[in-house]
Specification:
two-stranded antiparallel sheet, 8 helices, alpha/beta
Length: 242
């Protein structure tokens, strides 16, 4: 592992919208290449990278629920969407020269490996990027929770939630000019304030397992490397000594 890096094994949580481009919907292969290049830059640092990606660019379960769809069915559709995104990102990464494996919590052996914790860790140790698709494999759990779960299972040092915003604010910075950005937060404060970091299940799982969460802007140049170097970027959620 790179000796100058603060973190040697990370779980990168991406939204499905990271692959959608300007349209905000669907998969844009050019945008997938942009994301792959950003990940490829840190992959060169001899760091172990696992990824969980959402599916908001393909399916939002709330749309189905609003029209009477069964919650479990809507959630399973979302999980299938994450596998599509995982495959698109795998293709883009491998075209950038980054060896990648997709593991799915929902078995579909023709397109992805089944999720096997020890195999995933072995892939990471061999320098491969591992993308976890299919969420947790269960309805009623978000991909945020899947990220927290997989990070804990593989012994990651941190969950990095890469968004379009440079951190966590006390209110929406796009709507309120006086919104205040937090440099650090405790898990409890994040839960009590109901801040838009991750959902409460994911935050609680990270809190119970002392898994730090960093929220940053994926598109800020050099931000991922700065984060791995331990520089104060974005917002860091930890126990703060509690």
């Amino acid at each position: 592992m790179g000796t100058d890096l603060k973190y040697s094994r990370v779980l990168l949580k991406l939204s499905g919208e990271a692959l959608s481009g300007d349209a905000g919907f669907g998969i844009d292969p050019l945008r997938a290449e942009e994301v792959a290049r950003l990940i490829g830059e840190i992959a060169k640092l001899d760091i172990q990278i696992a990824i969980v990606i959402g599916a908001g660019n393909l399916w939002r379960g709330t749309l189905g629920l609003d029209r009477g769809m069964d919650r479990a069915t809507a959630d399973y559709m979302g999980m299938l969407g994450t596998v599509m995104n995982a495959m698109a990102l795998m293709d883009a990464l491998e075209r950038c020269g980054v060896v990648t494996r997709v593991q799915s919590a929902i078995e579909m052996k023709s397109v992805a490996e089944p999720y096997i914790r020890r195999r995933a860790i072995r892939h990471l140790e061999k320098g491969r990027v591992v993308i976890f698709g299919g969420g947790t494999g269960n309805p009623y759990f978000s991909t945020d929770t899947a990220a927290a779960l997989r990070a804990t299972e593989i012994g990651a040092d941190i969950v990095i939630k890469a968004t379009k915003v440079d951190g966590v604010y006390d209110k929406d910075p796009k709507k309120y000019a006086d919104a205040v950005k937090f440099d650090q937060l405790s898990y409890i404060e994040t839960l009590n304030r109901r801040l838009a970091v991750m959902d409460s299940t994911a935050i609680s799982l990270c809190m119970d397992n002392n898994m730090p969460i960093m929220v940053l802007n994926l598109w800020e140049p050099g931000i991922l490397q700065d984060a791995l170097n331990g520089e104060p970027v974005g917002t860091l959620v930890t126990d703060l000594g509690e």
